[in-house]
Amino acid sequence: MSEKDLTEIKFVEQEKEFTVDTNVLRHESNPGDQELEKAARLFWKHMKMAVENDDVSIYVPAEVVRELEVQSFNLSPSQNRRIQKLLTLCETIELESNHLVEIEHLIRKMSSYIKAKYDLKQDFKANYPGTSDARILLTAYLLESVLVTANVKDFTIYPLLFEYNQDSLLNLKTNDYIRIPKDIHKAIHADEDFLSMLNDFYNLASKVQYILMPL
User: Fold this and answer.
1) What is the rounded distance in angstroms from the CA atom of residue 42 to the CA atom of residue 8?
2) pTM of the complete model
3) Rounded to whole angstroms, what are the CA distances from 92 to 18, 120, 148, 178?
4) φ and ψ at 72, to 5 degrees?
5) Is 35 exposed, middle or buried (0-12, 13-18, 19+ CB in 10 A)?
6) How far is the C-alpha of 54 from the C-alpha of 12, rounded, in Å?
7) Burial class (CB in 10 A: 0-12, 13-18, 19+), 197
8) CA–CA dist 45, 28 (Å, integer)
9) pLDDT value of position 192
10) Contact status, residue 103 vs residue 138, Cβ threshold 8 Å
11) Do residues 198 and 192 make contact, with C-beta atoms less than 8 angstroms apart?
């Protein structure tokens, strides 16, 4: 077993709950990017074993399921079958609240603020998420789960919703957690403008209910 395999098993043992982005399901059957396809297959190989042993829970936001439905018309039958098979390993989560639009806007606003004001010292350029990604992020946050994505640049706000030492954002491609340097994390959490937005987010997020949907 390779060192990469050992790393994969290690994070499965350490973390118990994962929320997956659309691309984590898509890349497992995407022949267009061999590196990401390999990373996704490795992820799902170990997740399948962990789920069968009741070691982890994998959540998929209803927003992801809807996006996959839209994309399905442009995928081959075999790709759609493989995605549907992966979905059987997951629990689908729907959100209910009158505040979703407001929360999604806050997530995007906080992300844009951080992008404009701070250098997060990452090897990619931080971005702010679209509305769909903001809802995926909110779902992961409410479940207190690790968010798994191949598109970490749109989710760099996620680790800033938690304490500094909490692993919360997993890069599918590199099999590494995105960690904001401690001094930068501390500076951002001392920023009064950011804290005002963050507290509004915490307050509104506490009013959202999530529902487990049937397969």
Assistant:
1) 8
2) 0.91
3) 12, 32, 15, 25
4) -60, -30
5) exposed
6) 11
7) middle
8) 10
9) 98
10) yes
11) no
Share the mean pLDDT of the chain: 91
Q: Is the dihedral of CA 85, 46, 126, 165 positive or negative?
A: positive
Q: With 0-12 CB in 10 A as exposed, 13-18 as middle and 19+ as buried, what is 54?
A: exposed
Pairwise CA distance, residues 11 & 17, whole Å: 11
Which residues on neighbouring strands pair with residue 93, listed in sequence order?
61, 212
* Residue among 115, 114, 135 at smallest CA distance from 61: 135
pLDDT for 9 equals 44
On the CB side of 133, how many CA atoms lie within 13 Å of its CA? 20
With tokens 């079958």, the residue in question is: 81
Among 1, 2, 8, 6, smallest CA distance to 174 is for 8
- Which residues, in sequence order, are CB contacts of 184 under 8 Å at separation 6+? 118, 119, 120, 121
C-alpha–C-alpha distance, residues 60 and 171, integer Å: 16
The residue to which tokens 């009741």 are assigned? 54
Average pLDDT rounded to a whole number, residues 46-68: 94
Sign of CA dihedral 149, 150, 156, 157: negative
Q: Hey, what are 195's tokens? A: 């804290």
